[in-house]
């Protein structure tokens, strides 16, 4: 058995097999049906900078929350022409983490459930209120929804964003539902958390541009249980490929956060698709390999995205490398400031 066989065939197939196993378990797990009544002790909190770049998306989010009859408040850096909003004092603001910290210190209660949304995201139904009651009774303290992209001005960014939907149905569901531990992080869109846990963890976290990921790592460290609600969450895709890359570059900060918390699971998950993709050509030497199968799965996701966006499949496949480019740029630059993408 030569070293080339071990490096290019045996190891990639072992890693690929494990990765496929995780995705398959997540995909097979379905949210449980139940007849629990919706919780009443909740508040939806929409976090926004409140400037002209986000106002159209924010108006869309507020309209949806009112259509669903949900209790909400908008936590804003600026005064808004919206009846239910709280303005964060300028000296307490400066980042999403700091804005929520001020809210936690001044408004959060132990006996409430809080559902955080970005200003361009909103739930498509209210089933998450029933899921909070069901999973809360079983010891879960935090949860997420399933992200579903809606078009911005860039059809390519919209097509690429469908990978987030795929990951929510596979790897994230494996983490939140099968393991009940947020080993791969959590989304800031429809971030559900019990009030006492929020008040305990958030002030102790420290400022960061990846507040949702650090919060998940603190939940993991303290061995809190999580869940994934059946509610779909509409997220607006970036309006340009430039914003798409900048958004992904910010997410790269989660890699250093994972290293800080010694979360090997996340580091392996991030590296695995890249390593498996690079090992795919080994199929020319050894025949069918699991990395080839994984590449086909991801290719099919991008095909699905291209059909949804009505773009040429080749365009989307080529643009998919922007995901990797964003991570590389983010890891190299080590961004320290939150970049607000244009949501008009």
TrEMBL record:
Pfam families: Glyco_trans_2_3. Residues 115-294 form the Glycosyltransferase 2-like domain. The keyword Transmembrane helix applies. The chain crosses the membrane at residues 6-28, 263-279, 285-305, 312-332. GO terms for cellular component: cytoplasm. InterPro entries: B_mannosylTrfase_Bre-3/Egh, Glyco_trans_2-like, Nucleotide-diphossugar_trans. GO terms for molecular function: beta-1,4-mannosyltransferase activity. Keywords: Membrane, Transferase, Transmembrane, Transmembrane helix. The keyword Membrane applies. PANTHER family: BETA-1,4-MANNOSYLTRANSFERASE EGH (PTHR16779). This is Glycosyltransferase. It comes from Pyrobaculum aerophilum.
């Amino acid at each position: 058995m030569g070293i080339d066989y071990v490096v290019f065939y045996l190891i990639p197939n072992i890693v690929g097999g494990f990765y496929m196993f995780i995705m398959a378990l997540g995909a097979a797990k379905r949210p449980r049906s139940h007849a629990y009544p919706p919780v009443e002790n909740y508040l939806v909190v929409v976090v926004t900078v409140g400037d002209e770049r986000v106002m159209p998306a924010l108006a869309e989010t507020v309209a949806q929350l009112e259509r669903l009859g949900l209790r909400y408040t908008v936590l804003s850096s600026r005064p808004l022409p919206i009846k239910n909003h709280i303005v964060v004092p300028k000296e307490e603001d400066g980042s999403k983490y700091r804005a929520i910290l001020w809210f936690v210190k001044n408004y959060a209660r132990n006996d409430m459930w809080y559902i955080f949304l970005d200003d361009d995201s909103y739930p498509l139904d209210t089933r998450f209120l029933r899921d909070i009651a069901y999973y809360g009774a079983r010891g879960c303290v935090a949860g997420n929804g399933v992200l579903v992209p809606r078009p911005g001005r860039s059809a390519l960014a919209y097509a690429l964003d469908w990978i987030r939907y795929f990951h929510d149905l596979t790897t994230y569901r494996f983490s939140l539902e099968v393991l009940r531990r947020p080993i791969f992080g959590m989304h800031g869109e429809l971030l559900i958390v019990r009030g006492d846990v929020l008040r305990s963890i958030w002030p102790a976290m420290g400022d960061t541009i990846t507040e949702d990921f650090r919060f998940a790592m603190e939940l993991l460290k303290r061995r809190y249980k999580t869940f994934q609600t059946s509610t779909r969450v509409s997220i607006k895709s970036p309006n340009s490929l430039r914003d798409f890359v900048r958004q992904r570059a910010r997410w790269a900060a989660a890699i250093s956060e994972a290293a800080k918390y010694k979360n090997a699971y996340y580091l392996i998950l991030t590296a695995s698709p890249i390593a498996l993709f690079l090992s795919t050509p080994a199929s020319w030497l050894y025949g069918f390999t699991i990395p080839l199968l994984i590449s086909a799965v991801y290719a099919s996701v991008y095909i699905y995205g291209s059909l949804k966006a009505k773009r040429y499949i080749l365009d989307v496949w080529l643009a998919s490398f922007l995901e990797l480019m964003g991570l590389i740029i983010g890891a190299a630059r080590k961004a320290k400031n939150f970049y607000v993408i244009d949501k008009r």
